[in-house]
User: Which sequence fits this backbone?
C-alpha cells in the first residue's frame, strides 16, 4: 500500500528518487516516536496515518497541473518543502541535530514535527488522536479537533483564515 500511495516518489523527475522515501526508512523512523499510529483504537490508528500522509505528501508534492494522475499524486517527490526556510528545524536538548547538519522537515523530522507540540499549538498527533481539547478561544476561532486544525498547526497563518487563496 505504501508503494501505491506514493507511486511517483521514485520517478526520474523527483529529487527523492532512488528510494530516499522508502517503507523501511519510514518504519525505522516510527520506532523513535512512541504512540504514532498506535494511540486509540484501530480507527484512530488509521485516521492518524492517513492524516500524516495527506499532510506530508502535500508538502512534498512534485506534481504539476498536467502531471500523470494529477498534481497531487506526486507526494514525497521533493526532499524538502518548496519555499521552506534554509534550516527547517531548530535543535533542542531533547532533539539535537547532528553537528554540521541541517534538517528540512523531511524523513524522520516529519514525524518529529507531527509528534511534538509547538507552543502554544498542540501536536498534530494529539489533535488527530483527540487527546487535545480546544480552549474557549480555540472554539471561538473555530479551531476544532480534526484535519483542519492540523493544517493550521503546520502552516498557520500562511493557509488559514484566507479567502480565495489557492494554498487553501
Assistant:
Amino acid at each position: 500500500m505504501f508503494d501505491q500511495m506514493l507511486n511517483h516518489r521514485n520517478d526520474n523527475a523527483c529529487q527523492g528518487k532512488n528510494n530516499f522515501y522508502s517503507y523501511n526508512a519510514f518504519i525505522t523512523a516510527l520506532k523513535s516516536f512512541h504512540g504514532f499510529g498506535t494511540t486509540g483504537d484501530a480507527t484512530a490508528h488509521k485516521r492518524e496515518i492517513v492524516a500524516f500522509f495527506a499532510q506530508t505528501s502535500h508538502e512534498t508534492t512534485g506534481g504539476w497541473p498536467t502531471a500523470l494522475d494529477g498534481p497531487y499524486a506526486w507526494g514525497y517527490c521533493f526532499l524538502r518543502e518548496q519555499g521552506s526556510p534554509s534550516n527547517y528545524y531548530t535543535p533542542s536538548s531533547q532533539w539535537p541535530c547532528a553537528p554540521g547538519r541541517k534538517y528540512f522537515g523531511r524523513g524522520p523530522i516529519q514525524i518529529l514535527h507531527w509528534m511534538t507540540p509547538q507552543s502554544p499549538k498542540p501536536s498534530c498527533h494529539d489533535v488527530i488522536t483527540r487527546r487535545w481539547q480546544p480552549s474557549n478561544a480555540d472554539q471561538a476561532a473555530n479551531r476544532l479537533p480534526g484535519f483542519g486544525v492540523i493544517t493550521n498547526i503546520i502552516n498557520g497563518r500562511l493557509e488559514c483564515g484566507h479567502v480565495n487563496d489557492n494554498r487553501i
Summary: The chain has one domain: 2-158. The chain has a mean pLDDT of 80.
